[in-house]
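Fold this sequence, please.
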Amino acid sequence: MDALLGILQRLGWWDVLDILIVSVAIYEILKLIRGTRAVQMGLGAGLLLALFYLSRLGHLTTVNWLIRNMIGYVVFALIVLFQADIRRTLAHFGRTPFAGYFGRGEAGDDVIEEIAVAAGVLASQRVGAIIAIERDIGLRNYIEGGIPLDATVTNDLLVTIFKPGTPLHDGAVIVQGNRVAAAACFLPLTINPVVSKDFGTRHRAAIGLTEETDALAVIVSEETGRISVALEGRIEVGIAADTLRTRLRELLAAREPRPREKRGLYD
């Protein structure tokens, strides 16, 4: 007890700040990897670290030598395997409360209305579509890979783009603010093994984009005509056309991650 009191008495403001920063950083990292494959890898790394110290205490020379020589290769392998998760983590820490002042701004009510109407029409006709809405993290890399449009968001334009047989129907539409930035954009497919095998390329592309960025994606299934929404690497399936606009407003207004156990969301 006396030792603890002595340590507390020696703590200064800089020490408290140091501990606070490290605590917040660890907390944010744990939130980001919760429910992902990184958890299992973290447990494996912890087990490897425990085995390393156990080998030193127990004078297990061969085990200690093997682990010491493996560490460099393990770090390199983790960087390669988790490059998408690392990008998402850095992007998360790069966000600030002032990001909205420097960005293009999020979609307004008029844009949400046009997207909701277009999704309803496409769903009734069973025309496949994927519409990505940019938020704080820019989607310029994906926009440059598509066909630039820079057009006003209207439901007629969106329905026309995804009409089968048109040159732009194969790919995603990206919306920046109140403009359609580009069409026929190719998005990264998710490699999350937990994602249901029932999901097709459009759904996997939407999940992949939202895993790497904070964008929101609206998907219309060509096979079933169901409307889905993807955000933060999770997807909500079977949203009714008449409630889509309300759901989009809720998701675009929410800045904090939603609980993973929320009904209708699949990892």
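The chain has two domains: 2-99, 104-266. The radius of gyration is 23 Å.
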